[in-house]
Design goal:
heterodimer; A: about 325 residues; alpha/beta; Rossmann fold; 8-stranded mixed β-sheet; 4-stranded antiparallel β-sheet; 13 helices; B: alpha/beta; about 30% helix
Chain lengths: ~325, ~325
């Protein structure tokens, strides 16, 4: 079943101020989320900027300190050893970043960039390492002579491929992809998305796909969680979320996506206005008095929505 | 067609940049017009020349490294030949501009109200009192709650969507007849994007101005545009009304682009991919069909030697003849019509 489980993850940032620069408050960037990961599946994390989706990704891989909560990986609690060099967790979870250009060291050749995780995690001989690099370049569809070049010699899509080659170098199980295509042009984006799907099947990878683009997420993901204010407002399969969205925030998000059918323009504007009005009126059903999102309540085996419990409404 | 209807007529515009003593055309022979009360969208991927076209219209290029030839006819003047002084009377007054990144377009050290007032001071003879009244009016018009307070705030105190509203307020402050919006919603979230697009549309309906919308997002185009021009490698390769373009795209590039969008309402496993890359300015082939190298499975004689825009239906223009013979790779060959 699931090889990794996240329980009640919280990341709070201190806000300093006042006299002596003491901690006066906390920003609840991620405020209690739970997820499970299964092999070969793609999980989508969707939300607007500032909702905590990137922080979640960084916290899982260990680039952010976790305030509370736990990460259990293959039965072992790894919450406090995420950045240890020789832990298997560190090798098995890798990341692809949004801006491929700034995620590659401009002074390193491609072969050194890709070799970094190999040198860190997989004690290979020089010859084996060379072989592995060629293999990786072949997987991401880059010519072999590119390994002596520097990142600036490549186009945006190619750089993202190099980033992907680096991420899969240590044979990971889960790749956290933080907006991997949002900096790319449409046609290049299609190339990278297709390619991510291909290597997923080949290597049996799982993805945590973080994005604000609901079209891309729908194309890529099996299960989707919608995030707002550091918490999940709705989670479910692709079908649950897109066919029968329940939370007012999900509806609002879905209604705002531009559609490429100009004929439906007017109808969708009306719908958007309706949803926006609903959002204002029914706010209290979905957010408590502090504006916090309620806990997730399951409404089917796969689908859960953050809502005030019905019981309370009756009483 | 009635010529006086056109707000702006661009004829055979070439904008070239100097790279090591050679000039390369980033905009290569673009002819297009903008009518009153119309939203014209210019779409294309990065490097296709769409932003260069926009900035050429109001002359924002460094004259030392740029050469602009052709005609940009606006109110009887050719903007390409106007002096800097005369252009300043047009910028912000007759033609407003909305930029992509609202934070870098605003001065961080100036209050919002003062920034909006700037163009009023330059272009109008309003008194101080009238100006501050107009500022409030503009802020209300673009849907900012509590305009009095916001006018005294600094850009960093506003959210991204609010900042973009301020930029729009600045752009429309002198009631321009043309607004050029260069990727106005690219830096914004989808919900904010929908609000800003609705706002632009409402304002346009109110003021009857013409809008040139530069974007790479076909969804945005379908949402607001009346007419669309698709650009590739410095040229317009297809131009049509918005319904026509989306229901009946003809040029291979347009069709491939539309096919590579991940859709929220379709479930196809694989996205269509366009082979190869957009050629860079220096390496661009200047003869023959510029898209030919990206659809190599189409036989060569399908292309024109010097591709021209052909009107294939009223108001629908397509460059080159290759669309007639185009099919997606892997599909059975043959003409599509």
């Amino acid at each position: 079943m699931s090889f990794m489980e996240i329980k009640d993850l919280q990341v709070h940032y201190p806000v300093r101020g006042g006299f002596f620069n003491t901690i006066v408050d906390h920003v609840h960037a991620v405020d209690g989320i739970s997820m499970e990961f299964e092999k070969g599946k793609t999980y989508g994390l969707v939300g607007e900027s500032g909702c905590g989706k990137s922080t979640t990704g960084k916290a899982i891989i260990g680039l952010e300190k976790i305030t509370s909560g736990s990460i259990v990986y293959e039965g072992v609690d790894v919450t406090n050893q995420r950045r240890q060099r020789n832990s298997s967790y560190n090798r098995d979870i890798q990341m692809i970043f949004q801006d491929a250009h700034s995620s590659l060291n401009p002074r390193k050749r491609v072969k050194d960039i890709i070799a970094e995780p190999i040198r860190n995690f997989l004690k290979l001989s020089d010859l084996e390492e060379k072989k592995r690099i060629n293999e990786l370049l072949a997987i991401v569809g880059m010519p072999e002579d590119s390994k002596l070049k520097y990142p600036h010699e490549f186009s945006g899509g190619q750089k993202q491929r190099i980033g992907i080659a680096r991420a899969i170098a240590s044979n990971p199980k889960l790749i956290i992809a933080d907006e991997p295509v949002s900096a790319l042009d449409l046609s290049v984006q299609a190339q990278v998305l297709n390619f991510l799907k291909e290597i997923q099947q080949e290597l049996g990878l799982s993805y945590l796909f973080i994005s604000h683009d609901l079209g891309v997420v729908k194309h890529m993901c099996d299960e989707i969680a919608i995030m707002n204010k550091g918490r999940f407002v709705e989670s479910g399969t692709k079908r649950d979320i897109y066919q029968s969205p329940q939370h007012i925030y999900t509806k609002r998000l879905l209604s705002a996506i531009p559609n490429i059918e100009p004929s439906t323009r007017e109808a969708r504007k009306v719908e958007r206005i309706n949803v926006e009005q609903n959002y204002q009126v029914e706010n209290h059903k979905y957010y408590d008095t502090n504006g916090r999102v309620y806990d997730l309540l399951p409404i089917s085996d796969t689908h859960a929505v953050a809502k005030k419990e019905e019981r309370e409404v009756v009483i | 067609m009635n010529i006086t209807q056109n707000l702006l007529t661009i004829k055979d515009l070439h904008t070239s940049f100097r790279i090591k003593d050679t000039y390369f055309d980033a905009v290569d022979g673009v002819s297009i017009h903008l009518k009153k009360n119309e939203i014209l969208a210019i779409v294309g991927e990065s490097g296709c020349g769409k932003s260069t076209l926009a900035t050429s219209i109001i002359g924002l290029h460094d004259a030392n490294v740029t050469r602009i030839t052709g005609e940009i006819e606006f109110k009887g003047n050719n903007l390409a030949e106007l002096s800097e002084d005369r252009l300043n009377d047009v910028r912000g007054n007759d033609i407003g501009m909305i930029f992509q990144d609202p934070l870098s377009a605003l001065n961080p050290l100036m209050r919002i109200g003062d920034q909006i007032e700037e163009s009023l001071i330059y272009h109008t003879k309003l008194s101080k009192k009238e100006r501050s009244f107009r500022v409030q009016e503009l802020l209300t018009q673009v849907g900012i709650p509590n305009p009095k307070r916001v006018a005294h705030q600094f850009p960093h105190q506003l959210s991204g969507g609010m900042r973009q509203r301020v930029i729009i307020a600045i752009a429309i402050s002198c009631k321009p007849s043309i607004i050029i919006a260069d990727e106005p919603t690219t830096a914004l979230d989808v919900t904010i994007q929908a609000q800003i697009l609705d706002l632009l549309k409402d304002l346009q309906a109110e003021t009857q101005s013409g809008i040139i919308l530069i974007t790479h997002d076909l969804g945005v185009v379908a949402e607001v545009a009346d007419r669309v021009a698709v650009m590739y490698a410095g040229q317009i390769i297809e131009e049509a009304g918005v319904d026509e373009l989306f229901s009946n795209p003809r040029h291979p590039y347009t069709r491939s682009l539309l096919n590579s969008i991940p859709q929220t309402h379709s479930d196809s496993e694989k996205l269509e991919v366009i082979q190869g890359v957009v050629p860079s300015l220096v390496n661009l082939p200047r003869t023959g069909c510029r898209f030919a190298s990206r659809i190599p499975w189409i036989q060569e004689d399908a292309h024109e030697n010097e591709p021209q825009l052909h009107e294939i239906a009223p108001g629908h223009f397509v460059r080159c003849t290759c669309w007639n013979h185009f099919y997606f790779e892997g599909e059975e060959g043959g003409s599509l019509t």
